[in-house]
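Hi both,

Apologies for the delay on this - the queue was longer than expected. I finally got the zinc ion-bound model through. Below you'll find the protein sequence and the ligand SMILES exactly as submitted, and right after that the structure tokens for the full complex including the ligand.
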Amino acid sequence: MNDVMQVSILASSSQGNSLFIKTPKQQLLIDAGLSGKKIKNLLTSIGQDITQLDSILVTHEHSDHIRGVGVLARRYGLDVYANQKTWQAMAPKIGQIPPKQKHLLAANTVFNLGGIDVESFSVSHDAIDPQFYNIHYAGKSFVDLTDTGYVSDRMKYIIQNADAILMECNHDLQMLRDGCYPWSLKQRIISDEGHLSNHDGAQALIDVIGNRTQQVFLGHLSPENNYKTLAHQTVAQILMAADLGVDYDFTLHDTDPQQATKLLTI
Ligand SMILES: [Zn+2]
Ligand SMILES: [Zn+2]
């Protein structure tokens, strides 16, 4: 087997998120924010066997990231990793997990998991202690970054020039403003502890895409306040206006709430 990292975004939206990462020695999910059954079916749809999974890395305790964590951990004996505060916050929501499967993964550290270097970094979001991940394997890196109100210089430094990046494009600001959400929820989403808009995601990408970057995924779209073609066109236009080679130097991928992206070698 080739010693490479492969990635599929199994599902991404504000309704449920799960990413699959495969190396010869380790198969893991970042988040399991859909039912166990849905995640099993999504893995099957890309030719993968859920019984081969080893672990789940959790970003934060919101239900669109942890819905299936307990069920999957129990059924398949998976090791689950989260920081201490996130464990405390999600414990009542996911049911019992055998203590030997519960592991701490502190924010802003690098942790070796079956030959993968998992780099955790804090984000700005209204959860207890949210952290996202830069996954390093065999000289390549894959970044998952959603659920943050803004992208700080520190985050940009950590994710700079990754080979592949999943970047949040939660909403179109105009759709959110004009939409039916109550004012308080709109305020929450656009706050510094909310979510990135299409514009915010594009601006962050301008600062972090480098000569190694080959794959860019647009993720965590809100079904109410965004749609795929709008996110894609908005981001593509902003990146091209900044002289970035969309579809030449790197591929801009959409993600879907229900359909996995094809398993891609990073
Ligand atoms: Zn989320
Ligand atoms: Zn969240």
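Main takeaway for now: The mean pLDDT is 97.

I'll put the files on the shared drive as well.

H.
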